[in-house]
Amino acid sequence: MIPVIQSLIDATSAGAVYALAALGIGLVFGVLRLANFANGEIITGAGYALVLLWPLSWPLALAASVLVAIGLSLLMDLAVFRWMRSQSPAALLIASFGVSILLQRAFEGIFGVNVRSGAVAPALTKSVNVGGLRLSLLAIVAIVLAALLLLAVHLFLTRSRMGLQVQAAAADFREARILGIRSGAVIAVTLGMSGLLAAAVAFVLTAQSGSVNPSFGVQVTVFGLIGAVIGGLNRIGGALVGGFAVGFSLSLFTTWLPAGLGDFRVAFVYLLVIIVLVIVPNGIFAGRTAKERA
Description:
Layout: H1 2-32, H2 39-53, H3 58-79, H4 89-111, E1 116-117, E2 127-130, E3 133-136, H5 137-159, H6 161-171, H7 173-178, H8 183-209, E4 211-212, H9 218-231, H10 236-256, H11 265-279
Antiparallel strand pairs: 1-4, 2-3
Helix pairs in contact: 1-5, 1-6, 1-8, 1-9, 1-10, 2-3, 2-4, 2-8, 2-9, 3-8, 5-6, 5-8, 6-8, 9-10, 10-11
């Protein structure tokens, strides 16, 4: 029984990280209809800030990672996406691929192609034993951090004036603009929130691995994007649940699959995604309407 509970705890920790990634992607898609593949490079930029600055000062590293993530998110919009507001989601997705590749080459030019290593929050690598269960401090922090951020996002979206405007824009951007909602402020706040969530993902991942390379954030973004799609990209809550489900499933496959099938864990996740999308092509929690951005 203990191995099962242990694997569920580990899966919950993994699911929490992917839920944060998917929530950031879902927030941006809800307002801008942009499935931002370059979210991975936002995570990478924040990861570099953590690894390089943590030995100097951890508060500085945390603050820099958040600023880098939010700055990159806003800069992408300023340089590319704001000029494509009227384009289709497919065109925006392709543009985000281009931005992703461009930023990866930029990271290679600045930091080199090799891995940059550094201990980020080394105290969190310890574990405690509770009744035969090995509880990693990092796993606990990941779950608590995700829960706090999700609660903060929920309270912001439901209790603040700007949060309600973001929700209205996510539901129907065109109608929200007609009703007088400040589209520029809503977009900036949404991108800032996605940057903050990307910085949180970068913190957990760099604390786990202690290293960053130019493609550091790609994998978690791909699975976060997949989670957002199966949950329903036009539903913020759906993206969150979908991201958690993908991370949870990936961790369980890693633990439970026999040694000979371990290399196929990602394939099994994709198989589950295919089955879900065959049954509900628009995602489990998707709405029916498509919104126009102008």
